[in-house]
Amino acid sequence: MVIAVGLADSINPSTIGPALYLAATRKGVLRVTLFTTGVFTVNLAAGIALTIGPGRLLRGLVPHPHGPGRHVIELVAGVMLLVVAVALWLGRRSLARRELPMRDGGGGSALVAGALVAAIELPTAVPYFAVIAAIAASSAGVVQAIVLLALYCLAFVAPLLAIVATLLVAGERAEPWLQKGAAWLQRRWPVVLASVLLVAGGGLSVLGGAGLLKQ
To answer: Which of 6, 65, 67, 137 has a Cα-to-Cα distance from 31 of 20 to 30 A?
Structure first.
């Protein structure tokens, strides 16, 4: 079950996009590998903390908003995402002229980037928390819980591992296509990111607003 959920959750532009970009840079194999390591490590560490560590106790102390409170949070979060999306759209031309980060950095920057992407995404990772809740509610021991979490995290980074494998097998033959992809991403990333935030923000705003109207 955890592998199936992880594979479904792995189709994620927030991780695949940066990995494809890094694949077209100098030392692409190393940098995508380190990026993948950052994503995997943060997800696994957070999962362990929430399932069997101190985080399990903290979850009981954190209030879970219901009713109007939850809908207000959804609405505010949605509006904030919409504001960021509009700002990205208005500044898309000037942003596209700037060099994307990690282009010429070392492997350390790719590792940190992977960790940051995973950490930023954690609050909205619904399938991830569903897996953690299922494991925590089961009779699995500590070792079993860690193995299950590791399997989920491994499935989640499967597309990133596939990119690494492609680079290793194709070698220089993949470079022209990767360069084209990186060039396209350099020109279009503000529009792509604005579109993603627009959809997410719009969905949250509608969900929160409709919930408040029903109260």
So the answer is: 6
